[in-house]
Design a protein that fits this description.
Elements: E1 6-8, H1 10-17, E2 22-25, H2 28-31, H3 38-52, E3 56-63, E4 66-69, H4 73-82, E5 87-89, H5 94-100, E6 104-106, H6 108-118, E7 122-124, H7 135-138, H8 143-150, E8 154-157, H9 166-175, E9 180-183, E10 202-204, H10 207-220, E11 226-229, H11 240-257, H12 264-275, H13 279-305
Parallel strand pairs: 1-4, 2-3, 2-7, 5-6, 7-8, 8-11, 9-10, 9-11
Antiparallel strand pairs: 3-4, 3-6
């Protein structure tokens, strides 16, 4: 029985009923990740990539208090035009937005929640949230990590966002028993950059291997998520020194302006984009495309196992 607040797009519902591959997509990247109309163009391109690789896309969002598993092109356009006027919805916001009949753009956390409610097992995004730099004092840790600990969805990304404390993020995931896989690499990628110096738990080289690992996880009954880190294609990867310098400058400005909580990530990503002259945004778009392709292929491989 579906949740009374949930609307599943008819195409998505039919695909799930027939056991076909479906891939969830977040909507924060549409409303808070980049300007209009580039945000809508990117979102539609990502959906096309998923279709081209044999799966059905399900962009997730909240419209008028309804949890939407599969937005229409018109709804994507609406969120893109509304931009940051739409609430950035994490787990703590869902009930209030539904009760008030308001709109929300879903983060990694809420995309996982709604995808799981609808029966979608795969989710492609850019990068996950994690432990912020200086979290020893601020306790600023993304809800994404907690969601990965207990929501059985495979999240395909390019690693945690580069603005974070990556070693502590990896440590947190290990503490909560979340498997972290590297696709075609044993080294954890660092979002805009290929190298982080950190090690993934295991390396897998094909979508079929990823599908088998996730199938085993579900059959064992671990009831947790799975993080697949897929390095950004080398031709779009950013220069590590340039990115780290931009992040350091953005962090300094953030502290000077007293920006905290859920405003931290959008501020830092926007400032890094500005400081790098838009190079980081271009890298972000291409890593999302790359992750969508892998997610679709993995979802197709998983559907063949069932």
């Amino acid at each position: 029985m579906l949740n009374k607040y949930l609307d599943v797009n008819p195409e998505v519902a039919q695909a799930l009923k027939e056991g076909k591959a479906v891939v969830a997509l977040e909507s924060t990247i549409i409303s808070h990740g980049m300007p209009y109309p580039q945000n809508v163009e990117t979102a539609m391109n990502v959906e096309k990539i998923i279709r081209d690789n044999g799966a059905v896309p399900a962009t997730i969002g909240i419209i008028g208090g309804r949890l939407k598993a599969g937005l229409t092109p018109e709804e994507i356009e609406y969120l893109g035009k509304a931009g940051t006027k739409v609430a950035k919805a994490s787990r703590r916001d869902l009930a209030a937005l539904c009760a008030k009949g308001e709109d929300g753009a879903t983060t990694v956390t809420t995309t996982m929640i709604i995808a799981h409610m609808a029966g979608i097992k795969f989710f492609a995004t850019g990068g996950i949230g994690g432990v912020h730099r200086g979290a020893q004092q601020t306790f600023d840790i993304s809800a994404d990590l907690e969601e990965l600990a207990h929501t059985p969805v495979m999240v395909i990304c390019a690693g945690a966002k580069a603005i974070l404390d990556l070693p502590l993020t990896l440590e947190y995931l290990e503490t909560h028993g979340v498997p972290v896989y590297g696709f075609g690499t044993k080294e954890l990628p660092a979002f805009y950059c290929i190298h982080s110096g950190l090690q993934a738990d295991y390396e897998f080289d094909t979508p079929e291997e990823l599908a088998k690992a996730f199938d085993a996880q579900n059959e064992i009954g671990l009831n947790s998520g799975c993080l697949v880190t897929n390095p950004i294609p080398a031709e779009y990867a950013a220069d590590e020194k340039e990115i780290n310098s931009a992040i350091d400058q953005a962090l300094k400005e953030m502290n000077e302006q007293g920006i905290k909580g859920k405003f931290v990530t959008p501020f830092l990503l926007a400032r890094v984009k500005d400081i790098t002259g838009g190079d980081s945004l271009d890298a972000n778009i291409h890593l999302v495309y790359n992750n969508a392709q892998l997610a679709a292929k993995t979802a197709v491989a998983y559907s063949k196992l069932h």
